[in-house]
Structure formats: C-alpha cells, structure tokens
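Both lines are quoted verbatim for reference:

——
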Amino acid sequence: MPIDPEPWLFRRIVQEIPEAVVFADRTGVIRLWNSGAETMFGYSAGEVVGQTLDLIIPDRLRPRHWDGYHKVMATGVTRYGRELLATPAIRKDGRRISIEFSITLVKEDTGNVLGAAAIIRDVTARWEKEKAQRQSGARLAAPKADKEGAAAGQLGDS
C-alpha cells in the first residue's frame, strides 16, 4: 500500500535527516535550519533563523558568495542543483570545516524564486585524510627526485 506524502512526513524527514538542510530566502536570510545543521554548525535554529548566511561563510569568501547568490536569485539558474559545491564553512565555535552541498531553487508557481534550499554534508574528515595522503605522497616523491637530480648532476660532472 503506497504512502501518501503528507506534510508531516516531509517535515519529519527534513528535521531528522543527518545532513544539514538549510533554506535561505532571496535576500540570504535563513528561514529553515534542521537538526543536522544544528549539529554540523553548532547553532540552534533559534539562533540562526532570521540571520543571514554570513554566520557560516568565512569572511574572505563572502563577497564571492553574495555575488553568486544574488545572480542566482535574479536569474533563477544554478549549476549546483546537479553539481556539488565544495567550500569551507565556519562553525559557531570558530572552527573551520569543509562542506559539500547541492541546492535547489524554491520557486512560486509563477516561477519567481523564493530562495534556495541546500543539502549540506560535512566532509572535513575526508578532506583532511586526502590532504595527509597528498602530503605523504609529496614527501615520498621528494627524496626520490633529489636522488635522481643528484645522479644526473654526477653524470653531468664527468
């Protein structure tokens, strides 16, 4: 027997999913902040609803973020509905985390964009592991390159 999608079911899924689900209106003001967002960023919904996304965007990235955000709101077009965006974010405690997210533009029946909903995943642990592997690989490659360079230098001295 199929389950009719009732409004309570949608609310329950959004609230309880472990990923952060955030909705910001056209001006970038947060209107929805689920329990996954509370865990990921350290802010309760009561602290962020009514505030701008600046709470989680690093200072140096804000101009670029807002340029893109306003363009998407004006055009109604984004590539991040199909592609993941990877970027740093800031937690309430000031710690920097790495996130990946996709968005969907929420539109009125007339096509006017109301805002953007994002599904966000904290990928900090994976990013740090990959960074350590890259650094380890670079350290292993450096001595080999040094030996090859020395050997080439010795051959050139003959």
About this structure: The first strand starts at residue 20 and ends at 25. The domain at 7-122 is CATH 3.30.450.20 (Beta-Lactamase). The chain has five helices and five strands. The radius of gyration is 22 Å.
